[in-house]
Every structure is written in structure tokens, then in C-alpha cells.
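In practice, a research group might receive sequence data for several interacting partners and want a quick structural hypothesis before committing to experiments. The following worked case mirrors that situation: the sequences arrive first, and a predicted assembly follows.
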Amino acid sequence: MSPRRSGRRPGNPDTREVILAAARTTFAERGFDAASIRVIAAAAGVDPALVHHYFGTKEQLFRATIDISVDPAELLPAVLSGDRDTVGERLVRMFLTVWDSPAGAAAVALLRSAVANEWTARLLREFLVTQVLRRVLDQLAIDPAELPLRGSLVASQMIGLAMMRYVVRLEPVASAAPEALVAAVGPTVQRYLTGELADPPGGRRA
Amino acid sequence: MSPRRSGRRPGNPDTREVILAAARTTFAERGFDAASIRVIAAAAGVDPALVHHYFGTKEQLFRATIDISVDPAELLPAVLSGDRDTVGERLVRMFLTVWDSPAGAAAVALLRSAVANEWTARLLREFLVTQVLRRVLDQLAIDPAELPLRGSLVASQMIGLAMMRYVVRLEPVASAAPEALVAAVGPTVQRYLTGELADPPGGRRA
DNA sequence: GTCTATATTCCGATAGAC
DNA sequence: GTCTATCGGAATATAGAC
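A structural hypothesis for the assembly, expressed as C-alpha cells:
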């Protein structure tokens, strides 16, 4: 008669999803500080108190928002298995695929927030280091002494690309076809990962 | 900008300078939104009302803060005159010199603010396009059709470097010696400016 | 020139009615 | 489950006393 789930979760799942979606887009557009519970509630068409009812504090709501984020452990193996000389292109391609997808809104939210907010910056730093860079570099048999530098160089190009495409929206990078960016930026990442750091791969000075 | 005006400027120039310096560091540390007039006033050791007295609204104070920023028209000729094959390294070197200097605080303030704030993002966009990228590319005789893409690719790497070094503070880029970054990132910028965008300069595929 | 006092607005969060 | 009402605080900005 009443096909209830065991241990029913609080609240109407529909409303909860609506709030979460509104939070995701609002955080992505304005960052953690500028996005207010009230605006999120208005975007979801519910009362601000209801947001607290479902998610607790604003910080808890933010963590729930970025939690759906993609798991690098799932995606990276496909990037790392394959020709070592084109891993840069595959990494950029995966990066753009994720960020251009709906799930990318969570990443944009995190990036936007990391700038004005120390604890979100730490979140981003730890995500980059422990979830992405370490996995990538471990698989590529890099000289351990060079590993941190190579990792943060890759991060600088990737985050810069994300900044231009999703935050500052500088054209034509903001609207370029993913493959055009893969072709342009892939070799850069490739050099940061496996190339000579002091000289260009062509051996211009040699 | 123009220190000479016809009428006497209002206020004690000393106090004005102190407020401006406090505003610069506070904006650089926290971005436009998170930096409050009150903490700026506290850092300067004056009353919040005095800040308004000298600079008007918070937005006007911010503009005054970043106005002392370096003039690219002065610095870029030295970068552009010289061996065309090493202009990337010289550009990165100048970039780091400026951002590492006290004047760089204004740039950090603008970058931090551009993320959570639409009108500061426009400020940054316009500065990049009209003051830096256009000048650089005009001097290098680039195919006009490729100019916007090359420009925004350079911007993506530079802004990404600035994000890692000054905002997110990811090591070792955050503390690396400038010349190490010049050697590592210079070739990237060089390729974005004058190289083949689809293939690495070594002609890996050719 | 400098500061006190305050008007106004918005924030996150909670208590409790329905 | 949802919303009304509200508390306590911090923000920008202004008016005006000294």
C-alpha cells in the first residue's frame, strides 16, 4: 500500500534537486561569497528557510553543490593509457569535455570561489594536487624531482584556459570549438609533462 | 596618472596616500567585494567616513587603486624590440617583474576582483585586449586572422600563471625564481605568438 | 580635515506556526 | 514539508558636529 523507502531522506526529493540545481548555477555565476541563500532560494522558487532546512549552512550547501563533481579516478585512466606523446592533447580534451558539460558548473563555481575565499582555494589546491596532478604524473614515470614543477605548470595552463573560457570570457577562446583548443594548448601541456622545461622541444638552441 | 590639476586636491596628501596604500593591499588580498571600506580604513588607521571623503564610492576608490598600474605602452617596446624568436621569454620576464613589484598588487587586486564581479572582469578584458595583446601582436606582423586566437592563448597562459603564483599559490610556481618560470613558460608564449598552433614547433608530425 | 551618528539595505541563520 | 517572522550583524553611504 505504501511503498516507502527504508530510512526516508528528509524533504521532497524534487524540491531538493531543484534547490541544488539553482545553487549550482548561482555559485557558478557569482562565486561563493556573492551568491546568497536568498538569491538561490528565489531562483529555485522556494523560501530561503527551506534551503537551510535541506542543506544546513551555506558552506554545507556549497560542498553538496561541488560534490557531484566528476571523479578524476574514473576519467584519467583513459587519458593516460595510450601514446605517451599525445597525452597532453588527451588531457586537454578531457578537461574541456568535463567543463563544457553540466557538471562543469560545479568546477566553475569552485574556481570562481577559490579567488576570494581562502578555504575554497585550499579545496581547489588539494583537488588539483591529490586528485589530478599526482595521478597524471605518477603514470608517466616523471623524474620525481621535477614532478611538482611540471604539475603546477600544467595546472597554470589549465586554470588559465578555464579562466579565459568560463570566467573572464575572452574571445575567441570563450567560444572556440574544443578541438581547436586541443590542437593549440595540447602541445603546451605535453611539453610541461614530458618535454624539456628549459628549451622548446624543437631544440632551438641546441 | 596626471598629478597636476588646476585646483587644489582635497585633503591631506599624506593621509590620502596612506588610505590608497591600504586600499591597494586590501583589495589585492581579498578582492573587490570581500574588501570592505571599514577594514581598509582600519588598516590605514583612519575613520571609514574619511575614505569616502577622499575617494567617494567604493568603486571610485577601486579605480583609483588600480589606476597607478603600470603603463604597458612604456614597457612593451623593450620587450618587442629584439630577437623575434625570444620575445616569449622577454614577455614572461617583464610580466613577472611587474607582478612581483609593489605595483603588482594593483594587478592582483584586479585579477582577484575580476572573478566575482562582472564590471571588473570587463575592466580586465579591456585592459588585456587594448593595452597589452594588441600592442604585442601588432609589432610581430601576425596574420590578422590568427591574431585574436593567439592573443587569448597568450592571455590564458599568463593569467593562469598569475593565478597559480599569486592567488591560488600552488607550489612550487608560487615561490619559484622568476628565471625558472621564464625558461619554463617562455617557449609556450613564444609558440602562441609566432609558432604553429596546430603542431608543436619541433614538427613532431611532419 | 576628521570623526560621530545614523539611515538603509542586505546577509546567514533560527524558532516556530501551519 | 513549507513558510512567516525575526534576530543579530555587517555592509555602504550620508549628514553634520567639531
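Before designing any experiment, note the following. Residues 1-6, 200-206 of chain A have pLDDT under 50 and may be disordered. The first helix of chain A runs from residue 13 to 34.
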